[in-house]
Each structure stands twice: as structure tokens, then as C-alpha cells.
Design brief:
This protein has one domain (13-142). It has helices spanning 13-18, 23-40, 86-90, 92-105, 125-142; strands spanning 45-47, 51-60, 66-76, 81-85, 109-110, 114-117. The two termini are 24 Å apart. With 145 residues, the chain is of the alpha+beta class.
Length: 145
């Protein structure tokens, strides 16, 4: 069985954040790190070269593919921050709550399990915190430690 391309690494998240460019993205990454730490109570770990994850889980898809992945996290990409909100992807009810929150969030775009934000000034951080919290609670329910 093939393993996922993106694996947990030994990179120090603080070192990674310190190297994020431009400076605005670096400062926003610090803000996001503090937010994710506060909501999850977890210390971050790096997944691959650029994803900062909080908590992890293992599951097996119907296809038999086994996955080890972060419960939630983000990547401060050059163009946009990628926010990984797995609970909304895994659970329709949590996804529905996201629909309500997304209307209040501010300027963003979405992928299947990601939320993309150009800059934090474009969004309401209280709404983002609500979304992260809902996701975190769903992932803990669905995949208990």
C-alpha cells in the first residue's frame, strides 16, 4: 500500500515560520499558529516542507487506503494561506456549519478540504476561530485519541 506523499517531519515549526516570506505572511503565520494552538491545545508539527499541523489521526478509506494526516492546520503559501479544516470535509453537519460561517468570514476561496485566505485582514478571525473549533471537535469525536 502506497503511503501519502506528505509525511510528518522533524522540521521545527518555529524555524519554518521564521523563514516565511514576505514579512506580512510571516507575521500572519505567527497569528495563525497562536490561534490554532489556543483552539486545539496542541503543539504544532510540520507535515512535509510547508504544512503546520495540530494533532493527527489515522483512518482507512473504503478503498483500503490507510491515511495518517493532520487533524487541522495551515500552510502560509506565497499567494494565499491554505487552512486545512478536515472536520468539515469528513462530516456533512460540520460542513453545513461552515456554510453559515463562511457567509460571515470575509474574502476567501475554497477547495475540497481547504480554505484559502489571501491575507488575514480580509477575514473575521473570530469566525475563523469558530470554524477551527467546530472542526477540531468533530475530528476528536470522529477519531478519538
Amino acid at each position: 500500500m502506497a503511503e501519502a506523499k506528505t509525511q510528518f517531519t522533524d522540521i521545527d515549526p518555529a524555524d519554518f515560520i521564521a523563514g516565511v516570506e514576505p514579512e506580512r505572511k510571516r507575521e500572519e503565520a505567527k497569528t495563525l499558529d497562536a490561534l490554532f494552538r489556543r483552539v486545539t491545545g496542541e503543539q504544532p508539527k510540520m507535515w512535509g516542507p510547508s504544512i503546520i499541523g495540530y494533532g493527527d489521526y489515522r483512518t482507512t478509506y473504503d478503498s483500503g487506503r490507510e491515511v495518517h494526516w493532520l487533524r487541522t492546520g495551515f500552510s502560509p503559501r506565497k499567494a494565499k494561506h491554505s487552512l486545512y479544516l478536515m472536520g468539515g470535509y469528513c462530516d456533512p453537519e460540520t460542513g453545513s456549519k461552515h456554510g453559515d460561517a463562511l457567509e460571515r468570514l470575509g474574502k476567501h476561496s475554497r477547495g475540497k478540504s481547504c480554505l484559502y485566505v489571501n491575507k488575514l485582514a480580509d477575514i473575521d478571525l473570530d469566525v475563523l476561530e469558530e470554524m477551527i473549533r467546530n472542526d477540531w471537535e468533530e475530528m476528536k469525536r470522529r477519531y478519538p485519541d
